[in-house]
Amino acid sequence: MKRIEFMKRTFAVAALALLVCGCGGGQTQHETFMVKGLVTFNGEPVTEGLVVFEDKTNGRTGEGEIAGDGLYRVRVGKGSYAVRISPPMVEIDEGPDSPPSIDYKKMANIPDKYRGQQSGFIVDVTGDMDSGADLAMTGGK
């Protein structure tokens, strides 16, 4: 008798989980697009770092690493994105009596003003973009 009650409860929980989560039918995937561009500082390619796209209306993000030639690729959905550029994370040796910590690599070619959400870079994505998403930073070193 207890086994039947256990099976009924298990079935009820499973049915409820399927109802809440859905089983995939009828749900639509968000269409995404490839955005490509060149990251430069004072006209020279930036050879490492991370480009982060953030859609201010829904909080969705996408990110891509900057390659050695300054090119990046990010896959995101349609929308208007605030874009920031971050140096790569590196391990910092704190000395023999301390464990290493992780921090941003010191890079003069990614000024602080481009590292935050107020970088000034906005990219409007309506489809795949092989051009038009270049990120040209300027400033003193």
Description:
By secondary structure, the protein is mainly beta. The chain has one domain: Carboxypeptidase-like, regulatory domain (Immunoglobulin-like). Helix content is about 15%, strand content about 40%. It is built from 1 helix and 10 strands; from the N terminus they run H-E-E-E-E-E-E-E-E-E-E. The chain has one helix at about 1-20, and strands at about 30-40, 45, 50-55, 60-65, 70-75, 80-85, 90, 100-105, 120-125, 135. The strands form 3 sheets. Strands 1, 2, 5 and 10 form a 4-stranded mixed sheet that branches. A hairpin with a 5-residue loop joins strand 3 (about 50-55) and strand 4 (about 60-65). The radius of gyration is 23 Å and the shape is globular. Residues about 10-30 have low confidence and may be disordered.
